[in-house]
């Protein structure tokens, strides 16, 4: 059985990191002055960059998506591409950005994303899309507070489309403690929290602080299990709370935070029966697809079709949309299972 045929959910996809080569071509044709070459914004098969270089790539991509119409185009293309890959439920995340050169404000940015989601729905794409507003930790506390306010406004006005807040950005920049206050505020307002943590080694103190917020999901958590023995409490805490981990194999390999497929921390958490969700992170930058991530994990860790199916089904438990949506998705999956596993 080919896992490609399973319906899947994508819960960790950064919008600007998810732009395909085809969409980039369209955008670059509109901005020839930027003189950006493909290898500056995507990491091809067999190639790697360190995390710092990956973050430089995002800065280049941001120059290409500087207008609301760019954000609208990439949102629509990214949604269609995920739908074509078999994704039935998608949580996109993105950092609202203001651009002096074009007059785009953070509010206009979010409105463009929401418009893209709405248009795809009107066009009849078979995919349920939600949005997480991202806080970029490299931009500091004041910007984070502003972003949380914006996220709260949209949480109230979008009838379930805006569901949560993501803490991301270069993990070398700033410290988690600078974001505790706005993150707590977001949580109190009813936004679900997806926090990138332990993405790089020796961040135990920061991780402990962020785990203190009881996040709803963890992004990567690459070095959680590799903590010094004095910090084994972190793994225990995550296990006790059964906090799901969003795992992105290709991203971690190409970004050089994990040395080989077999050493990926999926191999630590999955055998413990801990909830994990496979995701792409940045399908454009890392040149991957969600179906491919499932295949890679299945091959590397020798999962049977039944196990892959169970992994896909379990992801529904960890989405941020309402329990009504979860029930609907489970029903959809149940209807598909008999034919797919025959
Ligand atoms: P955007 O938020 O502009 O739609 O997507 C790109 C941004 O997502 C990056 O600038 C960065 O803040 C965040 N991002 C993408 N991939 C990663 C990742 O692997 N780790 C972290 N910490 N942040 C990421």
Description:
The protein has 342 residues and is α/β, with parallel strands linked by helices. Helices cover 45% and strands 14% of the residues. The chain contains 13 helices and eight strands. It has helices at 21-30, 51-64, 68-84, 106-122, 140-157, 180-189, 204-211, 233-241, 249-254, 266-269, 290-300, 305-315, 323-340; strands at 8-14, 87-94, 128-136, 162-168, 192-197, 217-220, 245-247, 276-278. An eight-stranded parallel β-sheet has the order 1-2-3-4-5-6-7-8. The longest helix has 18 residues, at 140-157. The termini are close together. Guanosine-5'-monophosphate (5GP) binds next to strand 3.
Low-confidence stretches: none
Could you give the distance between the termini?
A: 8 Å
SSE order, one letter for each helix or strand: EHHHEHEHEHEHEHEHHEHHH
Largest sheet: 8 strands, parallel
The hetero molecules present are: guanosine-5'-monophosphate
Tell me the quaternary state: single chain
Assign a percent range to the helix content. 40-55%
The number of helical elements comes to 13
Number of strands: 8
Outline = globular
DSSP strand (E) fraction? 5-15%
> What is the structural class?
alpha/beta
Rg (C-alpha, Å): 19 Å
Question: Which strand order does the major sheet show?
Answer: 1-2-3-4-5-6-7-8
Mean of residue pLDDT values: 94
GO biological process, one term: adenosine catabolic process
Family: Belongs to the metallo-dependent hydrolases superfamily. Adenosine and AMP deaminases family.
Subunit structure: Monomer.
Domain Adenosine deaminase: 7-332
